Amino acid sequence: IRIIFDGRSSFEPVVSNMVLECKVPVNIMFADLKDMDGKAVGQLVLQLPDEDTAAAKVKHYLTGHGLSMEEVDGYV
After folding, report:
1. What is the pLDDT of residues 13-33, one digit of tens each?
2. CA angle in degrees (0–180, nearest 5) for 44-48-52
3. Strands of 39-47's sheet, edge to edge?
4. Which residues pair with 58 in a beta bridge?
5. Alpha helices in 1-76 (DSSP H)
6. CA 28, CA 36: separation in Å to the nearest integer?
């Protein structure tokens, strides 16, 4: 999935908190993030586990915390 960061605090450990709360390992495939006056701007691509329940937990967490995301396939 691609997570879009459009201005939330760059001091919030989004991925770490997600992994701890969901207890689901993810793989960071790509990151292009910049700190602009304390705000995170950019994108992050995560590879989720193949298990549907684990992937759904992560998606629910992200949407519940107001992050924009989209599913991508074969991202390079």
Report:
1. 999 999 999 999 999 999 999
2. 140
3. 27-36, 39-47, 2-9, 68-70
4. none
5. 14-22, 52-64
6. 22
